[in-house]
């Protein structure tokens, strides 16, 4: 691993480049028995993102570097990864907001099977998501040519949890999820919350019964890692607490 030189503070000039050392945890299942760290020096502008640095490495230094990305605007959630020990979206993490006097460490999110470099197998995550039945289930039909109406107050009840982009940053920041692969995880509970408290839905109790399980909401230890990791600012721990309360009270 290369020696890191002391860097001057990031200039306020958005056109001035500086050298950033990126240390990436690499893993190729075809050749590696275990993951290993590899460092790269990259010329960056202060307004560029970690995703831009990864692109430069892949396009200019090592084409084998593997990571997911899609929209690059914090909407798709594809590029969730651990940056300096915290779950973040690479497309929303600006270089100038990190301490570039030290190396920037990048690795795959934890708790899901590692496939290659920064890519994990998301299927266990989506299995839990599907299991909570994250879709509207209404017994009554709306009138002809009409929508199911909802007041602003009723919408506000679950508005926060509609923001989830299924990036898995919250779930893969949870220490319970790291040690217990059967735990539903915060993202699944957040998406259940979105329909449990939707006034148009008639099957809240179904989801509450699913989550009232030894691997459901009661496994949450309220560490707030999930809330801190969410790139959309969802109050994840609060949502989990509200689901717990609904289970104890009965249908919300």
UniProtKB/TrEMBL annotation:
It is an enzyme of class 1 (oxidoreductase). Signal peptide: none annotated. Belongs to the succinate dehydrogenase/fumarate reductase iron-sulfur protein family. Residues 18-112 form the 2Fe-2S ferredoxin-type domain. Its cofactor is [3Fe-4S] cluster; [2Fe-2S] cluster; [4Fe-4S] cluster. Its EC number is 1.3.5.1. Keywords: 2Fe-2S, 3Fe-4S, 4Fe-4S, Iron, Iron-sulfur, Metal-binding, Oxidoreductase, Tricarboxylic acid cycle. CDD domains: fer2 (cd00207). Binds 1 [3Fe-4S] cluster. Binds 1 [2Fe-2S] cluster. This is Fumarate reductase iron-sulfur subunit. Residues 154-176 form the 4Fe-4S ferredoxin-type domain. It holds the Pfam family Fer2_3. The keyword Cell division does not apply. It catalyses: a menaquinone + succinate = a menaquinol + fumarate. One of its GO terms (molecular function) is electron transfer activity. Pathway: Carbohydrate metabolism; tricarboxylic acid cycle. GO terms for biological process: respiratory electron transport chain; tricarboxylic acid cycle. InterPro entries: 2Fe-2S_ferredoxin-like_sf (IPR036010), 2Fe-2S_ferredoxin-type (IPR001041), 4Fe4S_Fe-S-bd (IPR017896), 4Fe4S_Fe_S_CS (IPR017900), Beta-grasp_dom_sf (IPR012675), Helical_ferredxn (IPR009051), SDH/FRD_Iron-Sulfur (IPR050573), Succ_DH/fum_Rdtase_Fe-S (IPR004489).
């Amino acid at each position: 691993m290369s020696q890191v030189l002391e860097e001057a503070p990031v200039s306020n000039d958005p056109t001035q480049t500086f050298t950033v050392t990126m240390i990436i945890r690499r893993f190729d299942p075809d050749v590696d028995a275990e993951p290993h760290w590899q460092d790269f020096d990259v010329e960056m502008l202060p307004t560029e993102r970690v995703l831009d640095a990864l692109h430069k490495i892949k396009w200019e230094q090592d084409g084998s570097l593997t990571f997911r990305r899609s929209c690059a605007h914090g909407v798709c959630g594809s590029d969730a990864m651990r940056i300096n020990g915290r779950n973040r979206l690479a497309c929303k993490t600006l270089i100038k907001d990190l301490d570039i006097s030290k190396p920037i460490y990048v690795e795959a999110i934890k708790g899901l099977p590692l496939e290659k470099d920064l890519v994990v197998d998301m299927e266990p995550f989506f299995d839990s998501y599907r299991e909570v039945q994250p879709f509207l289930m209404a017994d009554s039909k709306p009138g002809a040519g009409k929508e199911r109406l909802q007041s602003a107050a009723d919408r506000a009840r679950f508005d926060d949890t509609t923001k989830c982009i299924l990036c898995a940053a919250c779930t893969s920041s949870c220490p319970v999820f790291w040690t217990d692969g059967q735990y539903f995880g915060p993202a699944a509970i957040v998406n259940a919350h979105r329909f449990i408290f939707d006034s148009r839905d008639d099957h809240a109790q179904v989801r509450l019964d699913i989550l009232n399980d030894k691997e459901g909401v009661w496994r949450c230890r309220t560490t707030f890692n999930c809330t801190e990791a969410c790139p959309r600012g969802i109050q994840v721990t609060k949502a989990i607490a509200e689901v717990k309360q609904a289970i104890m009270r009965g249908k919300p």
